Amino acid sequence: MAIIPGLLLQLGLCWKTISAGQSSPTDASGDLNYELPTSNYETQDNITSEPTDILFQMVRLFLKVVQPHAFPEDVFREIIQKKFEPTVDYEKVAYYEMGILICVLLGLLFIILMPVVGCFFFICRCSNKCGGEMHQRQKKNGLFLRKYFAISLLAICLIISFGIFYSVVANSHARNRVRKTRKLANSNFKDLRTLLNEPTEQIKYILAQYDTTKDKAFSDLNNINLLLGDKISEHLKPKVIPVLDEIKAMVTVITMTKEALENMNSSLNALSDGNVQLNRSLDNVKYNLQRSLSDPECSTYPVNETCSTIGMSLSQLGINADFSQLPFVDTELANVKNILRTNLDDLVQEGYKSFNEIPESIGSQTVDIVADVKMTLNTIGSDINNITQHIPIQNMLPTFTGYINNTESYVHYYLPRLEEYDSYWWLGCLIICFVGSLIVVFYYLGLLCGVYGYNRHATPTTRGCISNTGGIFLMVGVGLSFLFCWILMTIVVLTFFIGANVEKLICEPYANRRLFQVLDTPHLLNEDWKYYLSGMILNKSDIKLTFEQVYSDCKRDRSLYSAFQLENLFNISEHLSIKERAGSIGNEFENLNIKLNIVLMDAAGRKALQDFAECGIDKIDYNAYLAQSSKYPTKVNLLSFANDLEAKANQTNQGTLAQSLKRNAQDIKMIHEQQVVPMIESQNTLNQSVKTLQHINDGLMEKVTKILHSLDSVQNFITNTSSVIDEEIKRYGRTIARYYEQYMYWVEYSITEEMAACKPVATALDSAVDVFLCGYVISPLNLFWFGLGKATVFLLPALIFAVKLAKYYRRMDSEDMYDDVETIPMKNMENGNNGYHKEHLYGIHNPVMTSQLYH
C-alpha cells in the first residue's frame, strides 16, 4: 500500500514539465490574424463509456457503503513525513480502514469456519447423523417445504450465477484492456515526442509572423500619402466640398441667368414685332368683313339678323396684350456677360484639384520619416529573434527527451512481463470461475433432475432413478461447496483488500484531486522546500507552484510557461518591452510637420460672385412682365371666331355672301396659325424666363454673402489645421505601432498560453493512473472480487437448502407417515424391544393406505 503513493508521485515528477504544442487560434484586432499551427494527438482525453461501466459503478457504490470515510489527508501526510516509520499513529489508519477490516475479518472467519464446519458435517453424515440417515420423516407441510426449498435454491443459484458472470466479465475486461496497454503507451509516447518537437517549430512560426507584420507596416508606410492623406481629407471634406459645391452651383446659376436674360430680350423683340403685324392683319380682316356685310342679301329676312350679329362681333377682332411698354434687359445682360468673363468654373476646378492633391503633398513631406520607421522595425525584428532564443522551454527539451526515453524503455521492458502475468491471471480467474460454475451447475442439475424425476405417487423408498440422481447432484454440490468455498473466499479477501484500498486511496482521491492536495502540503516531500515543484523547477521553494495547479492547467491545455510559472525564470513581458518599443515607433512621428497649401477661390472669383449679386436683376419689374406674358394675344380666340363665322355663313342662302364670309373665316384661321401661335410660344418663353429670374433673384444677395462667408471660414480652417494634422499623424503613428503591439501581444500570449501546451502531460498521467491502474487493473479486479464474493457468500445458504431439498429427491431406505412422533422411540422399535416390527407398527404392510397417507 505504501508503494502506490510513491509510484504516483514518481509519475508526476517524471512528466512534470513536458509540454504540448496544441494551440487555439488568436484573433487579433485589426487586419492581422495570427494562429499557431495545431497538432493532432492520438491519445483520447477520456475513456470511452461501455455497457459494463454500470457494473463498475455498482462496485464503487458498495465500497462507499463499506468505506464511507473521507480520504484521510492528515494520515497520508503523517505517513509520508515519517516515511512509514513505526511511530505513525496506526489507530487513525485502523479507524479509516474499519469498514474494510470488518469485511476482511468476516471473510477470514468464513475461511476458518467453513472447512471446520464441513469436516464436522461430513463426519456427522458418515455417522448417520445430521441428515445422513437414509430415512425421511414425513410432515404435513412436506409438499410446501419441498417447493419452498426448490424455489429458494433456484433463486440463490441465480444470484450465484450472476456473481460468477460478473467475475467472468471482469476477467475478460481486464484481459482486453491489458492488451490495449501497449497501444495506449505507444500513443502517449508518440504524443509526448510530438509536443517535444513542436516548440522549435512554433518559435520559427512566431518569428516568421513578424515578417508578415513588418510587411503590413511597410505597406502602410509606402501608402502613407493615401492612408494619412485620406484621413486628413476626411476631416476637411465636410467643410471644403460643400463650399466648392455651392460655388459650382452658383456658377450654374449665373449661366442660367444669362440664358434667361437673353431669352427675355429675344421674346420681347419677337412679341413687339408680332403685335404690330397681328394688329395690321386683324384690321384687314375687319375691313373685308364689313365689305361682305354690305351685300344686298344682308337686307333680306332672316339673313339680316345674321349679318347684324356678325357686324356686332367685329369689335372683338383686336390685340389684347401691349408689349411695347415692357423694357428690354440689355443692361442686366451686359453685367452678367461681364461676370462670365472671369472663368469661375475653372476656378472651382482648381479648388477641387488643390483639395485632391493633399495625399501627394503629404507623401512628399514624409519620405524621411518613413525611412526611419522602417529601420526601427528591422531592428526590432532582430531583437525579437534574440529574445525567443532565451526562452527556458528550449533549454529544457533535452532533459525532457531523456525522461521520455528512459520511461519508454522502462515501460517496454516490463510490458511483456505484464502481458505474461495477465495471461496467468486470466487463466487462474478462469479456473476459479469454473470451480464456482461447477458447483452451481451441480445445483442446477440437481434441481432439474429432481423436479423432472419427482413422482408424487412414489413413496420415499420407491422414488425413481432420475429423482434420486437429482438428490445426489445436490449433495455433490454441497460437498464441492465445503471443499472450495473457503479457497474462493481466500481469493476474495486478498483481492478485496488490495482493490478496495487502491480504489479508495488512489483512484478516488486522484479523480477528485485530493491526492494532489496532500502532495502539495508544504515541506512534505522535502523538509527544506515549502513547495516541492517550485523548489525543484524554479529553485525558489516559496513560490506557490503545486501539483494540483499544474495538473489543472495542463488539463485546460495551458502552456508550459504558464503552468509551471516560468516567468519567475524568464519574464517574457519584461524582455519584450511592448509599450516601450511601441512608443519608440510612435515617437518617430511626433516631430513630423506637414503644411497644406489649399486655395479654394482667388480674389477674382470672389469679386465675380459679389458682382453677380449686384448685377441688377433685383430691379426688374417681374410682375409687369408676368402680367403681359400671361395675357392672350387677341381679345377673342380667332379659331373659335372663325368656326362661328363659318357656321353663320352656312345659315345664309349660300350665295356670294356665304362665300365671302367663308373666305374671311379662312383668313382668320390663317392669322391664328401663322401669327397668334408663334406669339403664344414667345409669351411662354418670356413667362418662363421671368419666373426663372424671379426665382434666382429671390434671396440672391443672402446666398452670395453666405457663400463668401463660408469660403472665408473654410479657408481660415484650412490655414489653422495643424491640430487636426497632428492628431491624424499621431493616430497614423499609433496604427503602425499597433501592428507591432498586436504582434508582440500575440507573441506573449502564444508563449504564455499556447506554445508547448501541456495537455498531453495530463493525458499521459491520466493514462497511467486513471486509465491503466484504475480502469484496466483495479476496476476489473474490484468487479471480480465483488462477483466472486457474492457467489461465495451465497454458497452458504445454497448448501443448506440443497441438503434440505436432497431428502425430497433421494431414494430412502425407510420412511414413516407421522409428523413428529416423540412418544415412540424409533430405535427401540427397530431393535425389537417392544416385540413389533416397524412395518407392522406403521402400517407399511398395506401399500395403498401407505401411499394415501404419504401423499
UniProtKB/TrEMBL annotation:
It is a multi-pass membrane protein. It comes from the Eukaryota. The keyword Cytoplasm does not apply. InterPro entries: Prominin. The chain crosses the membrane at residues 98-124, 145-169, 424-451, 472-498, 783-803. Residues 1-20 form the signal peptide. Its main location: membrane. Pfam families: Prominin. It is found in: Cell projection, Microvillus membrane. Keywords: Glycoprotein, Membrane, Signal, Transmembrane, Transmembrane helix. Belongs to the prominin family. This is Prominin-1 isoform X1. It comes from Galeopterus variegatus. The lineage of its organism: Eukaryota, Metazoa, Chordata, Craniata, Vertebrata.
